Amino acid sequence: MISDFFLALLFALIQGLTEFLPVSSSAHLLFPSLLFGAKDFGIVFDISVHAGTLAAVIYYFKKEIQGLLQAWNPWSKTRNTENFSLGLNLIVATLPIVLVGLLVSDLAESRSANIDSIAWANLVFAGLLYAAFKSSSQSKSLTELTLFAALIIGCFQALAVFPGASRSGMAITGALIIGLNIKDTSRFAFLLSIPTIMGALILMLAKGAYSISFSDMLIMLTGFIGSALIAFFTIKSFLQFVEKIGMTPFVLYRVALGLVLLLI
Question: With the CA atoms of 79, 145, 104 and 49 taken in that order, what torsion angle do they form, in degrees rounded to the nearest 10?
């Protein structure tokens, strides 16, 4: 039987790697339990790995976040209009998943989801991502993003409440559909993950995670550090290569993953 420490590390690595890639973290989190009969560490661990991925994306985009905060500072003498518009678009794009998440939060519990439903979600949404990538004009930049376009991206991201859909994958799909170029599509999806993950953390904390033992602390620390490190390098690598590799490799991987899950 695999030890709790290595199991926690495995879950953290999976979460850190898949949170920001368009490949569905919920599908990958099935495999430790399928292969090792792994237990679910519960909400305490979920909080730690989500906090880790949040720390990674905030650190990577710290300059952009500083620019956004400065643009939205009411006492600032100079306001960057592009950063102000970007911040407003991120707020609008976050609203749909907040509303949907509050209404159907139980559906978002990926580890309790049916394997077949996650498999089919991978196949269906992978096909949608491929169609969006191939048909998109990819001619717009973030400075051309309108509030309505941001709302469309947000509505697509809200579909991530279906286990297997992939939050990042749905945000990227929506951004491609409205014609955003692949580089800015990825950047916007990553920035959009910040308020989204924050919202998920608040929701999990609201459910209660207050009785923590020493062994829980070790598991939480493993989850936080492991997911943060892997998430940081995942973000860095993805942004460096996404313009070269596009979305097709991720689509093919998700199709293969969905088929494997159906055959299990």
Answer: -60
For residue 202, the model assigns a pLDDT of: 83
Question: What would the two tokens of residue 252 be?
Answer: 């093919």
Domain total of the chain: 1
What value, to the nearest 5°, has the Cα angle with vertex 62 and ends 61 and 64?
A: 65
Residue 96 binned pLDDT confidence (cut-offs 50, 70, 90): very high
- Per-residue buried b or exposed e for 22-32, using 16+ beta carbons within 10 Å of the residue's own CB: bbbbbbbbbbb
- Residue 109, judged by CB atoms within 10 A of its CB (0-12, 13-18, 19+), counts as middle
What are the tens digits of pLDDT across the range 158-212?
998 888 889 999 999 999 999 999 999 999 999 999 999 998 888 777 766 555 6
- Is the per-residue pLDDT at 258 higher than 60? yes
Question: What integer is the mean pLDDT of 84-95?
Answer: 96
- H or E stretch including 17? helix 4-18
**Tokens (6 digits) for 12:** 């953290």
3-state secondary structure 118-165: HHHHHHHHHHHHHHHHHHCCCCECHHHCCHHHHHHHHHHHHHHHCCCC
For residue 9, give its domain range: 4-263
Convert 74-122 into a string of H (helix), E (strand) and C (coil). CCCCCCCHHHHHHHHHHHHHHHHHHHHHHHCHHHHCHHHCCHHHHHHHH
Helix axes 62-71, 81-103, angle to 10 degrees: 100
